[in-house]
């Protein structure tokens, strides 16, 4: 799984808060993922995101313009098809 956080260079604090929430959600769920924080306007435009911060999970923009809380991030991770298939195999 790849998780990208996109933010503007001047709004780095909001990006850092979102990064902390993502890391907390991943550690609580015991899920491994690549997490990247990009403070770059060009990367935002490439993903068609114009408000910061944005949460991108596996190349799909899930949230833009606000900092998601941990519970909401967990729900996005659980919705992923690969995660659901893995949980079926375990159960």
What does it look like?
- The chain is an alpha+beta fold.
- The chain has one domain: Glutaredoxin, CATH 3.40.30.10.
- 48% of the residues lie in helices and 23% in strands.
- The chain contains 4 helices and 4 strands; from the N terminus they run βαβαββαα.
- It has helices spanning 12-29, 41-46, 70-79, 81-90; strands spanning 2-7, 34-39, 54-57, 60-64.
- A 4-stranded mixed beta sheet has the order 2-1-3-4.
- Helix 1 links the parallel strand 1 (2-7) and strand 2.
- The radius of gyration is 13 Å and the shape is globular.
- The model has no long low-confidence stretch (mean pLDDT 85).
Instruction: Please tally the β strands and state the result.
Output: 4
Domain unit count:
1
Top-tier CATH class? Alpha Beta
Overall SS class = alpha+beta
* Unreliable residue runs: none
Strand arrangement, major sheet: 2-1-3-4
CATH superfamily: Glutaredoxin
Mean pLDDT across the residues is: 85
Secondary structure tally, helices: 4
Can you tell me the CATH topology? Glutaredoxin
Radius of gyration: 13 Å
End-to-end distance, in Å? 21 Å
Order of helices and strands: EHEHEEHH
Which bin fits the share of residues in helices?
Answer: 40-55%
